[in-house]
Write a structure and sequence with these properties.
single chain, alpha+beta, ten-stranded antiparallel beta sheet, seven-stranded parallel beta sheet, 12 helices, 38 strands, binds 1-deoxynojirimycin, binds calcium ion
């Protein structure tokens, strides 16, 4: 790799395989910009670089003082994930910029991989001001055509949206169809969120996101629909300030994953590669797991509640929960939780999540906002010592729930006692949540302050050897490499929306191309009873899925923590299908994406990290499809038995979702299986090597 200094105002590098070429240049005014080509065609056309703060303008008046280049080819082993070994192979160029008076200087570091580009701004200690109030990041991603866009609306607070497949020119119309979430701050106009995906007319796929978001706000993208261009839009605080920075400071990486093969976007590890190596020395306590939970029975209806009582604790002065009248509709009670523990123990499921176990849910209205939830105070009907001992005896882990009602400030104050309480009661993992407007001062969910909060929580959790599954936190950017105790996040519209209007089948054909590039999602698959009226007479919707597809999601939505979201009674109705959930691993040695097209279909094969068993998952959108499963990923030296969980011929997500079949066939490396998938359907396969 050679950095070609054409003159001191223009430099370039290529990717290790030579397919990508990055070019960095300065305008006559000394403003840096870059271009990116793939296989001799422009991907990103001239796009601005730089930052603007109240105190310092880092956008123009610069010259290139020097460049530093290096080539890296190394591998590393994640604690858990889709691969046991990840290759980190890139050519790097750091462009050091200085102004003519030698007052302002900064570096833009570019890493060009075979699968894309990452770059970030590095601000050293300045001669001038060293505390910056950031107003704007001018980074652009400019394109040369009316490409297809797969995106969700720009929002400072939530990402729980369905995906639009649109184009630059049709974006305003697509975004106008979204309802505004209550309390959330939708950005008007044509702002969208990352991760997002583009597809060009000649079949190039481009994922735009960021890596290692730390000490900085999340990035949205302002789209100029006429000029096919996108510009960074940092989530501000309530006063409109993007970030408060102290020098020296490195921004997160801006990332572009690029390929003419959609499967490469899914396989890309670029975002993880741009994150710092694991900071936790002893990771032996970090354990991938499956869990069931006291959750769906509240979520699906209004018959069951997180709250213990209907007496409004909002009435000031009531603090003693034993004086409240139990409402009799509170599933987080000792007897019911024991049933879940029994179920988990019987089926070899590692954990049981219990939501609604602690004081505070009566006050969801927020009358005592400065301390609504207590994380060390179980409700009177939740006998924690008894449950702790019972779970231990049965070899099952209880999973903690911390709904903060978005009182992040109070959560920080309770964190030590909450984590100590967990450890004393044998909990190793917690699901956190931030529903509502962030306290203090109605911060945004993805502003710098909340990014800092999330980092504080994950580090503190690591100190206590606690694993986290966060909901409503800033979108993941690969920090789970650095803190592998961050098992998963929600940060997108999850399976729970099946009880709130539904997710069309295409939704899960989109998430792996976008949201999952930042890290695993707690999507909560495993829904066997898909008719919402089963749970709640008031609801008549039907989940956008067949039963067989729910099994396939364990493969297509990989996560080291996977829920089996349905009620135990529904698994008892379909024990043969539930066998797949019992068998499927959550940690992988290898992954092969066999077929993929965003918003339409995904077929993936994965090798269990702890055995020689392979698994395949295939899903389609609302159209029936025949997946072609080429078993050449299997090692050459054997024959194999494949157990296929598939849609029955007459299955349909809408009116016949529970029609599935289980069949067993012999396969070998040469086998090519034509696997039918129903509309909204899927197939899940377990492949075991024959012993003789
Ligand atoms: C929203 C979360 O996504 C959901 O899973 C949880 O049950 C509720 N908040 C209550 O905390
Ligand atoms: Ca949520």
């Amino acid at each position: 790799m050679i950095a070609v200094a054409l003159n001191m105002a223009a430099v370039s590098i290529t990717s290790p395989d030579g397919n990508l070429v990055l070019h960095v240049e300065l305008t006559p005014q000394g403003a840096p910009y870059y271009t990116l080509d793939y296989k001799n065609k422009p991907v990103v056309t001239a796009s601005a670089l730089g930052l603007k703060s109240e105190q310092l303008d880092l956008t123009n008046g610069f010259r290139i003082a020097s460049t530093d280049t290096m080539s890296v080819d190394r591998t590393w082993e994640p604690v858990w994930g889709e691969y046991s070994t990840i290759r980190d192979n890139f050519n790097e160029m750091a462009v050091n910029l200085i102004d003519k008076d030698h007052q302002r200087e900064f570096t833009i570091r570019f890493r060009l991989f075979n699968d894309g580009l990452g770059f970030r701004y590095e601000l050293p200690v300045q001669k001038g001001p060293n505390h910056l109030t950031l107003k704007d990041e001018v980074t652009e991603f400019n394109f040369n055509g009316d490409h297809k866009l797969y995106c969700i609306p720009g929002d400072y607070d939530t990402d729980e949206y369905l995906w639009s497949e649109t184009t630059f020119s049709k974006l305003p119309e697509a975004l106008s169809n979204y309802a505004r979430h209550s309390e959330a701050q939708r950005v008007n106009g044509t702002t969208i969120q990352t991760p997002m995906l583009l597809k060009t007319d000649d079949g190039l796929y481009i994922n735009v996101h960021e890596a290692a978001l730390d000490g900085y706000p999340a990035m949205l993208l302002d789209v100029d629909t006429e000029n096919y261009s996108m510009k960074s839009h940092l989530v501000p605080d309530r006063l409109g300030v993007s970030a408060y920075l102290q020098m020296p400071f490195n921004t997160p990486w801006r990332t572009l994953i690029v390929s003419d093969d959609a499967r490469d976007i899914l396989a890309s590890q670029l975002v993880l590669n741009l994150n710092e190596p694991c900071k936790i020395e002893d990771t032996s306590w970090i354990k991938p797991m499956k869990f069931v939970g006291v959750w769906w029975e509240m979520f699906t209806g209004y018959q069951k509640t997180w709250a213990y009582s209907d007496d409004g604790l909002a009435k000031p002065g009531i603090t003693d929960y034993t004086k409240l009248t139990p409402n009799g509709r509170h599933p987080a009670n000792t007897e019911n939780v024991k049933k879940y523990i029994d179920f988990a123990a019987k089926h070899g499921i590692d954990g049981v999540l219990v939501e609604g176990w602690n004081e505070g849910w009566e006050d969801w209205g927020g009358y005592r906002k400065n301390r609504q939830f207590r994380f060390d105070k179980p409700y009177p009907d939740f006998d924690l010592p008894a449950l702790r001992d019972y779970a231990k005896e049965k070899g099952v882990k209880l999973i903690m729930h911390h709904e903060t009602a978005a009182n992040a400030a109070d959560y920080e104050l309770q964190l030590d006692s909450a984590f100590r309480f967990m450890k004393n009661n044998n909990y190793d993992a917690v699901k956190t949540g931030y529903v509502g407007a962030i306290i203090p001062r109605s911060e945004h969910h993805t502003s710098q302050w909340m990014v800092d909060h999330a980092r504080h929580v994950i580090e503190k959790a690591a100190d206590y050897q606690i694993m986290i599954d966060s909901h409503e936190a800033p979108r993941p950017t690969g920090l789970c490499r650095t803190y592998p105790n961050w098992l998963a996040q929600e940060s997108a519209r999850g399976g729970e929306f099946e009880s709130m209007g539904g997710n069309p089948p295409s939704h899960t054909c989109m998430l792996p191309f976008t949201r999952l590039k930042g890290g695993p999602m707690d999507y909560t698959p495993g829904l066997f009873e898909t008719k919402m009226s089963y749970y709640n007479e008031g609801k008549d919707s039907q989940a956008g899925t067949t039963l067989a597809r729910q099994l396939a999601l364990y493969l297509t939505m990989p996560s080291p923590i996977q829920m089996a979201c349905d009620l135990p009674e529904n698994y008892d109705r379909f024990p043969d299908a539930f066998q797949f959930i019992k068998d499927v691993p959550v940690d992988w040695a290898d992954s092969k994406y066999l077929e993929a097209e965003p918003n339409q279909y995904i077929t993936v094969a994965r090798l269990d990290k702890n055995s020689d068993d392979w698994y395949v998952g295939a899903i389609t959108d609302e159209n029936a499809r025949t997946a072609t499963i080429d078993f050449s990923f299997l090692p050459k030296d054997g024959t194999y038995t494949a157990t296929i969980y598939e849609d029955a011929p007459d299955a349909h997500w809408k009116d016949n979702p529970q029609a599935y079949r289980i069949r067993t066939i012999k396969v070998k490396p040469g086998t090519k299986l034509k696997q039918p998938l129903a509309p909204g359907g899927g197939a899940a396969i377990r492949i075991v090597k024959n012993t003789k």
